[in-house]
Write a structure and sequence with these properties.
Blueprint lengths: L1 H24 L3 H7 L3 H14 L6 H11 L3 H12 L6 H14 L3 H14 L4 H13 L3 H14 L6 H87 L25
Helix pairs in contact: 2-3, 3-4, 4-5, 4-6, 5-6, 6-7, 6-8, 7-8, 8-9, 9-10
Length: 273
């Protein structure tokens, strides 16, 4: 009897477990609509499920994918980002899909960051590594792209895309070398221009100094000549006054007086002339 009871009890627990698992893993209406390729309708249900707290841990991923299918990449990114903050969600998948949404928006820097987040969750997630390499390539981070591509080849040596990736790496290395050479030439040209401008500035300063010196000498010469003219003019005026005074002062001896009204008449000429 006890044995029969134990068997029935065990069967009951199994049936309860099956019902419990079905309840836990049953697809919501939003998830069903997404899987039936009805993203617009799925969004309405998924948003409502999340708002009401009845959403599964996968709801954020389905919501992001639904927005992605409709081409609303920003809402897709936001849905994945919100899912990343919720406990028990698949952070690896959410970050990976967010990276793809950023890539579709041509936001390659954030795309690379999302793929890096996915790789932090799973360092062996080679598809995220390859996508990060592509993001770095599009962001013109060629060194980062080369590193990721070469790492992908090491991790996936038999990948069918390996020949194309190796060819791309070769081209990228050539491009990096070309850019480095251009940068070197540009740096040398910048240094040459800077040196030339320095010499020109020094020459202009020298010319300005020379011009100022010549101008100072010119002013000094003008002042000297002006002073000479002033002295000559003063001498001319003095001479004129002296001549006038001399013309008024008659020193002829015949016009000299002894102090009386009579004039003294000398027989000889005055030596004062």
């Amino acid at each position: 009897m006890n044995r029969k009871y134990n068997v029935l009890y065990g069967l009951f627990l199994c049936i309860c477990g099956l019902f419990l698992n079905s309840a836990l893993f049953a697809e919501s209406e939003g998830e069903k609509l997404f899987k039936n390729n009805k993203p617009a309708e799925a969004i309405l249900f998924l948003e409502d499920e999340i708002k009401n707290g009845t959403a599964s841990s996968a709801a954020y991923n389905y919501l992001g994918l639904s927005y992605y299918q409709l081409g609303d990449y920003q809402s897709s990114v936001d849905a994945f980002a919100k899912g990343l903050t919720v406990p028990a969600t698949n952070k690896k998948v959410l970050a990976y899909n967010q990276g793809n949404a950023y890539y579709a928006m041509r936001d390659y820097e954030n795309s690379a960051k999302s793929f890096s987040l996915a790789l932090s969750a799973d360092p062996k997630f080679t598809q995220a590594l390859l996508n990060r390499a592509n993001s770095n390539l599009m962001a013109q981070n060629y060194d980062g792209a080369i590193t990721d591509y070469e790492r992908f080849i090491i991790m996936e040596p038999y990948d069918e895309q390996r020949p194309k990736i190796e060819q791309l790496v070769s081209l990228l290395k050539q491009e990096v070398a070309r850019l480095e050479e251009e940068a070197r030439i540009a740096a040398e040209e910048a240094a040459r221009i800077a040196e030339e401008e320095k010499r020109m500035a020094e020459e202009l300063a020298r010319q300005k100094e020379e011009q100022e010196r010549l101008e100072a000498e010119r002013r000094a010469e003008e002042e000297r000549l002006a002073e000479i003219r002033r002295q000559e003019e003063a001498e001319r005026r003095r001479k004129l006054l002296e001549d006038v005074a001399n013309s008024l002062q008659n020193t002829d001896s015949t016009n000299m007086t002894s102090g009386t009204e009579d004039l003294i008449d000398y027989d000889f000429e005055s030596e004062l002339d």
